[in-house]
Specification:
- It is a single chain.
- The relative contact order is 0.16.
- This protein has ten helices and twelve strands.
- The strands form three sheets. The protein has a seven-stranded mixed beta sheet with strand order 5-4-3-6-10-8-11, sandwiched between helices.
- By secondary structure, the protein is of the alpha/beta class.
Length: 305
């Protein structure tokens, strides 16, 4: 009799464990797109309706921007293809309502229009006068996207899985900004290997944040936003943004990159050569402050909730 009771309770416990496992895996798929231990990008097509996000990003133009003069036309063409590939995947993402694409020259506009992109109805083209600065994201959102859910991202970042799990009401109510660290994609390159920033070890080495999810209840003060007047690809740019959003605008900043995944598409050898001076440190920022107030270590959305 005792043995039957024991077996019955064991079966109940086993079923409970299975249900918990299924629930957790359905809510938080932390494994992501992997194959043979390497990350790969696949189009994100979700059954749930999460088409609410407005993505802000910029089209690459190494042909005219300073810092790319020493690369061949072939190299620059390859880098441009990577940006178009990234743009297409983000247009295909089920959670993306619009992609607000900043471009610099009329030649950029021609390239974009001739690229045979699908889901073009999602594309909003915005002519801009310079390489995007962090302040530009928030100036644009303050003018055009108040009370919308906004993603500001570097041009070579592909949005992955996990956006559908965000509690948007909570994000707005508690003034939370999610500043995500990235995963590296698998590609054939001779470039120096880079650790995934979205890992505890990789974050300590890299500490980058390339994607920022936020919602503005009202327009931000233009004068205060001048604190963010630096290029988005400058070293420590993401850390500077986190510090300002925390200290000046009183946002809570978290980094649930283990749940909300982003992928870096950079296989070409093209990297802006501006030297060590191309950093917030050259603008008078304190490295101690950036590391103390400008960091958000990787975690999962489940732990934040």
């Amino acid at each position: 009799m005792a043995r039957r009771v024991t077996l019955r309770y064991a079966a109940i416990i086993l079923c409970a464990i299975c249900l918990i496992y299924v629930f957790r895996c359905r809510r938080f798929p932390v494994d992501g797109n992997t194959k043979d231990g390497k990350l790969h990008i696949a189009p994100i097509m979700l059954a749930t309706d999460c088409e609410i996000f407005h993505l802000l990003t910029m089209f690459f133009n190494g042909y005219v921007w300073h810092g790319f003069e020493n690369y061949t036309l072939r190299d620059l063409n390859e880098r441009e293809k990577e940006f178009l590939f990234t743009l297409q995947l983000n247009l295909n993402h089920s959670c993306v309502k619009k992609v607000h694409l900043f471009y610099y020259t009329l030649a950029d506009l021609v390239t974009i229009n001739e690229s045979n992109l699908t889901n073009r109805h999602k594309l909003v083209l915005v002519q801009h006068t310079r390489l995007l600065h962090m302040s530009d994201f928030f100036l644009y959102a303050s003018k055009n996207l108040v009370d919308r859910t906004v993603i500001a991202a570097n041009s070579d970042i592909v949005l992955g899985e996990g956006l559908q799990f965000l509690d948007i009401d909570k994000m707005k109510r508690q003034k939370i900004m999610y500043s995500l660290s990235r995963f590296e994609t698998d590609c054939n390159t001779t470039a120096k290997p880079v650790k995934n920033a979205c890992s505890l070890h990789g974050y300590e080495k890299v500490g980058t944040h390339d994607t920022h999810i936020f919602s503005l209840g009202s327009s931000l003060n233009n004068t205060l936003l001048q604190q963010l007047d630096f290029p988005i690809n400058m070293r420590f740019a993401g850390n500077g943004l986190i510090k300002v959003m925390r200290k000046t605008f009183n946002f809570i900043v978290e980094n649930p990159c283990l749940t909300i995944k982003t992928y870096h598409t950079h296989c070409s050898p093209v990297v802006a050569s501006r030297g060590n001076s191309y950093s917030l440190l050259s603008l008078g920022w304190s490295k101690h402050d950036l590391y103390r107030a400008g960091r958000a270590r990787p975690t999962s959305l489940e732990k934040i909730l």
